[in-house]
Amino acid sequence: MSGLDLDPTQLDRYSRHIIMDDVGPEGQRDLLDAEILVLGAGGLGAPIIQYLAAAGIGTIGIADDDEVELSNLQRQVIHGNDDVGRKKVDSAAEFVASLNPDIDVRTHDLRVSPDNVEDLIDGYDFVVDGTDNFQTRYLVNDACTLAGIPFSHGSIFQFEGQVTTFAGTDDSPCYRCMFPEAPPAGMVPNCATAGVLGVLPGTVGCIQATEAVKATLGKGQLLDGRMVFYDALEMEFDTVEITKKDECPVCGDDPAIDSVHDVEYTESCAITRESDPEISAN
Prior knowledge:
Elements (H helix, E strand, L loop, with lengths): L7 H6 L1 H4 L5 H10 L1 E5 L5 H11 L3 E5 L24 H12 L4 E5 L8 H5 L4 E4 L4 H14 L3 E7 L2 E7 L8 H4 L12 H4 L5 H18 L8 E6 L4 E6 L41
């Protein structure tokens, strides 16, 4: 579709957007023309996918290679009892189709690796990272930063979450500006071993979806250069600044990383010239 040729059903479905001065029919058309990739169809990916589909993001890519497990259902709200044992990408695509038939879903049933990440993100306007391990986060950061594709990062742990957006401009920091290398293995427990409050990823994922919608509309201020920390127990939000580092190995003045193949995405995610194993994106 081109121009503002919204059909009567779309005018009704998106009417609460269309009556907004900062969205209107032009903004809704931008949403319908957008192509956004969601990495992970789990705790964070579920609310991200749900709200991007409801908002009318015309093309949503979903990358995940996991199957739905019963223990997922405490927080992964796009999957249900009948989906246990199914591929998450298939369950997620079926959910989107039932919610909004306008949406074209591209499923990527794969593990994200240095060998496929560049092709995976190619052509998407925005990437939303809902993965749950440092290796994939560094891989996504490096690939998106090198390609100039904006992306949102989110993470959760027990009662706490954090969200930021890397806009991909010359002045924007990246994930390595905060953390040049990953912490030692085992220092930060994951949700499988430490647990997570079921409603927490809903809050964090909705903020990530909001950032993706704002970026598509070109409205408001993204969390570029800022990270929001959310404490659900205290119901507090704190914001810290992220400074672009001249010495950053991927976005600095003299970057050492020219390709994702320059990095070994295991343990510290340090620079190397060796080939890399596949990284899970779940």
